[in-house]
Amino acid sequence: MSTIQLFHTSPEKISSITTEGRFGEFLFFSSGVYVMSATPCVTYSIDIAEDSIINAGSLFYHEDASKLDGLVNEFCERFDVDTDTAEEIISERHQLDRNDADDSWDVQLFTARAAKALGFRAVAVSDEQGTAYMIDMAGRESEMVMT
Fold first, then answer.
1. Contacts (Cβ under 8 Å, ≥6 apart) of 12
2. Distance, C-alpha 123 to centroid of its chain
């Protein structure tokens, strides 16, 4: 089993990960350390199995993609789009036709939830820095090593 090392930065020490907050149990990681603010931060590393990560673009090509039907329906209701459009946006093949940061963040959460529904721990997504990884960290705080 091949693993990769990824990094997460936080403005404060993380003691507990819950399902509360914008991204619930998912934290963003990257292959390199980067900081999005001028304030000091805490950097964590994690080693994760590569086969526990799915690329966003592969979600609806997975053999169990039918497990995503409920999530797609929820997305359609939330954003008032049809099923095909929802799948295209969740899988990052298209972007949501809105210029609202909250909506964009909500789309990323749907993408992470889709990966989890398919049995993956993480999903590789695109962000302003390149590839980012949304990883389900609920109950796995001990896996994060402060660097």
1. 42
2. 5
In terms of C-beta distances under 8 Å and separation of at least 24 residues, what long-range contacts does 72-80 make, across chains too? 74/110, 75/110, 78/106, 79/103
CB 29 within 8 A of CB 8: yes
Chain segment 40-63, per-residue pLDDT in tens: 899 999 999 999 999 999 999 999
% of the chain exceeding 70 in pLDDT: 98
Q: Which residues are registered as beta bridge partners of 132?
A: 125
How far is the C-alpha of 14 from the C-alpha of 146, rounded, in Å?
10
**For residue 54, what are the β-bridge partners?**
123
For the sheet with 53-55, list strands across it.
26-29, 130-136, 122-127, 53-55
pTM, whole model, 2 decimals?
0.92
> Tokens 């329906």, residue?
73
* pLDDT, position 108: 95
Residues facing residue 91 across a β-bridge: none
Q: Domain residues of the chain, as ranges?
A: 3-146
**At residue 37, does pLDDT exceed 70?**
no
